[in-house]
Amino acid sequence: MIKNIFDLQNPWRFEKGTKFTFPLYSRNIEVILKENLKSEKILGLIGSRQVGKSFLLYRLIQHLLKSNISKSDIFYFNLDDNQTSLVSGEASV
Hints:
- By secondary structure, the chain is mostly helical.
- The longest helix has 14 residues.
- The mean pLDDT is about 80.
C-alpha cells in the first residue's frame, strides 16, 4: 500500500513528460527556496492549511526536473493524504 501511495504522489519518477494539472505561476519566495536547494541543510516549509505549501513544492520539483536532477533523487510524500492514515492504522475522518 505504501508503494502505491508513493507512486501516486511521485508521478515524475515513472512517467515521461509529467504534466502538472494546476497553474504553476511564480511567487516571490520561490527564489529563496531555489537558492536554498544548494544547501545541505534541511529547509522546513510551514504555514496554515491551503496557503500554497504543496504548490511551492511542485514548483521546486518542476525546477529540479528542468535542471536535469535525476528523477530518482526527487521524493515527495504528502502525509495529509487520507491513505497514509490507513498505513499507520489511524482511522480517517
